[in-house]
Every structure is written in structure tokens, then in C-alpha cells.
What we know:
Alpha-Beta Plaits; 2 domains
Amino acid sequence: xxxxxxxxxxxxxxxxxxxxxxxxxxxxxxxxxxxxxxxxxxxxxxxxxxxxxxxxxxxxxxxxxxxxxxxxxxxxxxxxxxxxxxxxxxxxxxxxxxxxxxxxxxxxxxxxxxxxxxxxxxxxxxxxxxxxxxxxxxxxxxxxxxxxxxxxxxxxxxxxxxxxxxxxxxxxxxxxxxxxxxxxxxxxxxxxxxxxxxxxxxxxxxxxxxxxxxxxxxxxxxxxxxxx
Length: 228
């Protein structure tokens, strides 16, 4: 992968997989002793890891126990590659996950995104993630931005805080990657559910993808997990 020298470029590392520990408490302790160890946090942040967040499925979402999601935002692709090329980091990841799917995504240029503040006291956080294949970047950008423009006000009133769109990083010299990834953050689970089940939204949303996408809903696990 080649690097964008501008620090304003944001890359998202998503790692979804199955936890190796048998309980969430054991997974939390292991995570905090490995990825969350002070020296590891300092190393990651010094290389450009701007944010590290962990999630488990919302209970009614139909996931098996052990499904786990990490979302890291980096502003240095070189730093990300350097950090994860470290055998010690890979060994620790293997302790946390029994199987995992790490993917690096780049912010989708020209795709609408937004970030709204949370009113005081609105402290719950729920994350909607969609991943799927689009027919072309140009077509996906047009359809995506039409959806955002049409539904952003309604979504905000239902408790939506942010929307970010990404495209999978393609290897140098390879054709453009057509895999799309979007992350929505909500402060209201009920509003989120109603928005995603809105028939008008679902009809528009279906036009974005070449085939059925994966859509999942996540929340922060109980207890004190090291994040930044």
C-alpha cells in the first residue's frame, strides 16, 4: 500500500472476528493487557492511530456469542502498516481473536459524510455498519449522496450523530476496489431501528449495492475497555 503524505487523510482499520476467550470479561482483561497496554497504546498513537474503539453486537441482532468488532482510525497509512507488521502485535491479535478479518479502508472521496454533536445527557452509543459491493465508484457516489441528502434530517431527528463512508484500499497497480463500508453512530437505539426499517429508506438503500450487503448493529461492551 502506498501512503498519502497529508495527515488529513483518514484510514479506517476494521477487524471483525470471533473472540478467543470464552467470556467477555476474560476478553476485556486480555484486550486491556495487550492492545490496551500503555506501551502498546503509546506506540500505536505515535504512528498515527487516532482512535481505537471496540464493539459487541446489539443483543437482538442475531449474532453468535463472541462476535467482536474493532474500529481504528489512522492518519498515517505507513504508520498503520509499520505497527501491524510487528510480529508481537500479530501474536497479541491472535490471542484476542480465534479468527479475524482485518481490512483497511480509505475515506470515500466525494461521498457525503457528517458529524453532529450529542445533546447533554445523551450518552448511549450504537453503531450501524454496512459492507457490500457497488457497481462503480461514480454510480455509488451519486446514489449514496442522494440517499444522504434525502434522509439526513429525518435520521438526525431519530438520533443519528454521524455518517462516514469508506472504500476498500486496493493494492498498488490493481483495479479499483468496489467494496464499500459505512459507519453510522446513533444515540437512540429505537430511533436507529425505526430508521433502518423505514420502507422508503430500504428501497433507496438497496439501489446502492450490486448484491445483498451485510448490515449489522453494534454497541459498546460492558466494563472498562481501553479506548482512545
